[in-house]
From TrEMBL:
Originating species: Nannocystis pusilla
UniProt KW keywords: Membrane, Signal, Transmembrane, Transmembrane helix
Protein name as catalogued: Tetratricopeptide repeat protein
TM segment ranges: 198-221
Signal peptide as annotated in the record: 1-30
InterPro entries, A to Z: TPR-like_helical_dom_sf
Region (Disordered): 31-53
Keyword presence, Signal: yes
């Protein structure tokens, strides 16, 4: 009984997940005659694994992908050789934006898939590889621009501080000269009253520095988010939508 139930659960989950697509809907049905590529896997589920697989499918149908993934992880504990396991985990990881995890799970499933399933896995791996490369390029650009803006911002802040320091120094020198001249009118010390140019320059440099530092912080925050995507940390919302039958569409 568990063998037949496990087969149906596995086939239903794989059929639902197989059609995941980032751009357009795709319809894929599990083949009745699909057999694992090796003898290491099985369609059978024991009672504990069956219970968690049923919960996982329920969560999946409600769009609760994090909960579905947790249940499939519990299935892995009780039935580590269940054939559809890694494919289901791959699709759920992809739905959550965990690209590295999705790639690893697809690769783990591929040796045990039918030819049609392997073709689909190859397509998903190619798509995920291109997405990772785009994210990597964006990450490098964000790091470069953010670092440049941070350098300019710190330089501008340093210039502003320097302007204030020089203005203060000239002001102190002028005050000392005036005090000397009052005490020694016969030997006056030449002094020039400082103007407000350095103060104005200091304010502008400080303002520009703060703006550049803020912009660099924003770029670096975006770079961290991109890096987290590359490191398989889920960000943002994703959802699978039924398109009728066994077709689903993955939307970000």
């Amino acid at each position: 009984m568990f063998s037949g139930t496990g087969f149906r659960l596995g086939r239903a989950a794989v059929a639902a997940a197989c059609a995941a697509s980032l751009a357009t809907p795709a319809a894929v049905r599990a083949s009745e005659g699909s057999e694992p590529a090796t003898a290491e896997t099985s369609e059978e589920l024991n009672s504990q694994a069956q219970k968690h697989a049923s919960k996982a499918v329920d969560h999946f149908n409600r769009g609760a992908y994090v909960d579905a993934e947790e249940e499939f992880r519990r299935v892995a504990f009780f039935a580590p050789n269940w054939r559809p396991l890694h494919f289901n985990l791959a699709v759920l990881a992809e739905a959550q934006g965990k690209l590295g995890t999705a790639v690893s799970e697809y690769q783990a499933f591929r040796p045990h898939g039918s030819p049609d399933e392997q073709l689909l896995v190859d397509q998903r791996l190619d798509e995920l590889g291109r997405r990772r490369e785009r994210i990597a390029r964006t990450y490098r650009r964000q790091i470069g621009v953010g670092a440049s803006l941070l350098t300019l911002g710190l330089g501008s802040l340093a210039g502003g501080v320097t302007s204030f320091v020089f203005h203060r120094k000239r002001k102190d020198e002028y005050a000392e000269a005036m005090a000397w001249n009052m005490k020694n009118p016969a030997l006056p010390m030449e002094a020039t009253q400082p103007k407000g140019g350095l103060i104005i320059a200091g304010y502008w440099l400080t303002l520009v520095g703060v703006l550049l530092a803020g912009a660099s912080a924003g770029m670096l925050v975006q770079a961290v988010k991109s890096k987290r995507k590359l490191d398989s940390i889920a960000l943002g919302k994703a959802r699978l939508q039924w398109a009728g039958g066994a077709a689903v569409q993955l939307q970000f």
